[in-house]
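Batch manifest, entry 17 of 40.
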Amino acid sequence: MIERFRRPRLAAEVEHDIVYRNDGEFCGMPFLFGLWKTRDGSLLTAFRRAAVNYGNADDIHHDNLMVSRGKVVSLRSFDNGSSWDKESMNEVFDLATSPEQIADSGPADYSGEGPVDFEDDDVLIASGGVPAIFVPNSRPWLRISTDGGRTWRRPILLPMTGLGSLSGQGSAVVRPDGMCLVALTSVTPDGWTRRPLLYASPDGVQWNFLSFMTPITDDGQAVSDKTGSPRFGAHRYFYPRPLALRSGRLVATLRCQRDPTGVLWTELFESMDGGRTWQFLSRVNDWGAPGDICELHDGRIVCVYGYRLPPYGVRYRVSDDGGRTWGSEVILRDDGGSWDLGYPRVLEVAPGTCLAVYYFNRKDDPIQVNGGVRHIAQSVFTPE
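Output type: structure tokens
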């Protein structure tokens, strides 16, 4: 118990670098789009990229930035993240695409393209919501790549199955039986109540609702005064990030928040039946979300998250008992310029070595608009 509550400490072994930066762009949210290791051993990360004016604070406000603006793009590394090939940048999805444009582009599913094998490391899933995530009229889009992200099948809309609004979060996990589970979040017509859930497909051709991840008796709502934008309100559970452990268990992080600019945290749920039912397992931290997780070669689980209270930065915790309890907090970096950072993805790129990719802004950046230029950064570290 005492060990779990040691004071947060700076990581002993960590190296930081920039994955991608443009002084005229807001780049962010790798958590929503992906980080993969493909069949040839290369790494691929996907993130949001939008042209902005850092001379105008309103232009980088999330209420103005997150609706039908920007593109999802990918970058590739051929050396485990030591460098990223700027020539490899590839468009994954244009966020200005309307649901009607997707619906008019072809059949409602991938029956024409045929099935895929989700156990193939070159089969990747990207997903999101149009015209934006978590708005009352969100429709979930999905794309599949069968060549490690070099090309993508046309986008399709997932069926709504009676839900009024549905948004993808780019998180997919494959069960031992080959079934692929995609994580999404639904919202109520007023936009204030969110609930995470899963869709499933055995072959990628058709997708169907599988389960809600929070209890059916829980409406998923955090008590809130419901003033201003729901984007900056209090919400209980959203941004599901499932992980299939080698034991066969499924675990998933969920984001909870009172205030997305600081007071938010990560909780862990588990499923013992392949994602059909879920139950609360643990709270990972005091503050910091969304949290991404990976299972290390030695069976430990690492959870990395943005820390949006001063000193702003990125932190992680490790569990050595399958997510039931978590070790003390380790600070990867605390040089952020404002709360507007985080959304990491993490992989163990070699035994004992992890790579976290996230969006960041530095307090020492010469360009300051509520923090520095929002860019994609990384940390390579040895989990303690």
